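**Protein of interest**
===
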Amino acid sequence: MVALAPQPRYTSDGGTGMNTMNEINSRTVNAPVMGGNADRSIGAILVDAGRLRIEDAEVIMRLQRDKGLRFGDAAQQLGLLTEADIDFALACQFSYPYVARGQSALAEEIIAAYTPAAPEVESLRALRSQLMLRWFAADSKRKTLAIVGTERQEGRSWLAANLAVVFSQLGERTLLIDADLRHPRQHTLFGLDNRMGLSVVLSDRGGLEVVQSIPDLPGLSLLPAGALPPNPQELLGRPQFTLLLDQLSDMFDVIIIDTPSMTETADAQTLAARAGGALVVARRHLSRASRLRDSVDLLTQGGTHVVGCVMNEH
């Protein structure tokens, strides 16, 4: 679906000269961490996820003791849980949550949550592995990565959202920031409210309480864009944004930033500089090599490390 390559090396005939590394088809801050679920009971996981009331869990445990049943079997016998609930809890115990279709507000585009075994998601995990090696190394303090591109409709928001999901499935405390203060999409993809978000924090009218966890995906949180401001570039250029990233870096292992297109605004260049690293997204038959070259040059001139380029065919 996508191809991950190192920073493009431009040839004399104007081509990108990319070396493909992989073929890739691309409720608050205190959300539970996936890596800590192995020793937690199914009942505790479902209570924390809001799928089971505490009093119902007690009823299930009584039947479990009286009949010598497994917790899931007792719950289904009482009609208090569905098989999908049990599957969700088991996936959490194995640090690999997924979402059943029709039972979540997540958009169908979040394929990493709905179909974790799909070939496209395997490709996303391969991309995740490359990013772990190139940027989010265990001995590195680098935690933030901006997803940037030259044109609209290249799939930056789609890639940012699904990458955030697969990182959370790895057990990383993951935050997705929608920093596109012009055409935000992440709140729509995750079915969350967008009245309060990044714009509120940067204008000193709110704090970290605007970060929202994703109930169906423990370990994943979203900072939506918030109300669209009249001065997005000025807001993103304020020192508050750097301070915000410093605060969030103490709370999360991985921070993914969704950005607007570079040809429409300078916002993405500012965001990438704040993040320190950028993954450049292009789409076959849409992105222009010349604009891609110019965008990479702008990023590197601004001190951003271009981690790689992704050709999105989703």
